[in-house]
Amino acid sequence: MKESGIDRITDVIMKWYMTSPFFHTYGVHTTFVRNDNSKHKTMGVIPIKHDWLRIEYDEEFVSGLSESELEGVLLHEFLHIVQLTHDRRGVRVPDPWNIATDAVNNEMIMKDKIISGSNLSLPKDCIDIKQIEEDYDWSGSHIAEVVYDVIAKDFQNNGGEGKGDDGEEQSNEGKSPDQSSGSPCKNYKNWDNHSGLKDVQTGKVKRSLKNDSQLKEALSKAQAETSKRGWGNMTGDGQTFIENLLRPHVNWKKELRKVMKSKLGHRGKFAHKSWRRPHRRDLPIQDKMKSEYNVNIVIDTSGSTFSDLPKFFTEVESILKSYAGRARLIQFDTEVTSDKKYRKGDWKKVKISGLGGTDVQDLFDYIKTKKLHKNFTIIFTDGYFNHDFKTYGTSDLVWVTTGDKIPNMKNIEMKDY
User: Fold this and answer.
1) CA distance 202 to 198
2) Secondary structure of residue 342 in the 3-state scheme
3) Which of 254, 337, 257, 343 is nearest to 295 (CA)?
């Protein structure tokens, strides 16, 4: 008798008990729902109001997969959950974002071989990062946010507007290449059903505190099982990936205050004295000395940081209140879009400019040209950009990140746990 789809899925998850305790834990806490009536005859993460760990599948799709393909597909879906794909999208256009995340997930499965000895594979004609590199003559960090920046502009310039005339998100899922035109990414295909992630991304399904608790509990249990039973057959890359998720985190607010005090305290190297402007009634007597600071406060205003901007400016105000009083505020996305003096309270009148992609090299080119590289520079960003760049000797540099850490530099992770 032929095994049902749910029986085959269960077999893979039970196999992971020995080969990957981390993903096995996610598997046993996930609800799998058969849905043969969906227009997406595949599999996908479909969250609902009270259940964020939920995957829908089509019976015929599952029955047509080999054992190694099914294992690869399930791992792909769990990578979406573990990496919070729906949260990270921000204001990005859904289709190219889903293409980027699928390509990166597929590479992690096939190249990095997260679970060794499993002979993982994926359905044919799935999105391959090499295909994107060839189509766009591009090479760079295989991070979803970076890949998105490569394909998004081309996607939109060739008819991918993000929303249709009826206000619904457009999609090329399920279309054959001759139904899509213009840019290479319009022809990319993947089995993944992204309709559930789009419901989250567009606010149709709203995330609640209960959902946050559910995701944190799953991660905590996966961590406990990994500590208890070891890594199983996880590869070095797989272990590194999970360790980055599980590593302990410092109190970022205290860490930021500590750095600011060391740099901008009364004995800090960036503090200097100058005369206050005297009041006209006191002329010609000079007024008191005041402390000033050579500080560049840089805000990443690319589209992916839109939801982070209130947090960024809250910390900027705190810095100015406690230390600098005023600073140079630089905004950038693919280029520097604004460079102005900033005083405490100016957040009320700051005009945000940018909200495009991210090119951090242009920022450092600008800092060098304006001879600002000797100032203390603090950059607020999500870290989602190509990390291959030159700082031109901007050594007193601190990155305050809400996402990826910047390699080989001082990072303060702006995360609450």
Assistant:
1) 6
2) strand
3) 343
Highest mean pLDDT among 44-53, 234-243, 332-341: 332-341
| pLDDT tens digits, one per residue of 203-238 | 777 766 667 777 778 877 887 877 777 766 666 666
Please determine, for residue 50, whether its predicted confidence score (pLDDT) is greater than 80. no
Distance CA 355, CA 333 (A): 7
Q: Which helix (H) or strand (E) element contains residue 411?
A: strand 411-413
**Closest to 336 in 3D by CA, of 291, 296, 289, 388:** 296
If you ran DSSP here, which 8-state letter would residue 16 be given?
A: H
Condensed to tens digits (0 to 9), the pLDDT of residues 249-307 reads: 456 677 787 887 777 765 445 444 554 455 555 555 454 444 456 889 999 998 888 87
Q: Where in the chain is the domain with CATH 3.40.50?
A: 252-413
Q: What percent of the chain has pLDDT over 70?
A: 74
* CATH 3.40.50 given to domain 252-413: yes
Q: What is the DSSP letter of 405?
A: P
Q: Is the dihedral of CA 232, 234, 235, 241 positive or negative?
A: negative
CB 327 within 8 A of CB 260: no
- Please list, residue by residue across 289-320, b when 16 or more beta carbons sit within 10 angstroms of its beta carbon and e when fewer do: eeeebbbbbbbbbbbbbbebbeebbebbeebb
The two tokens of residue 354 are 């940018």
CA–CA gap between residue 415 and residue 405 (Å, rounded): 12
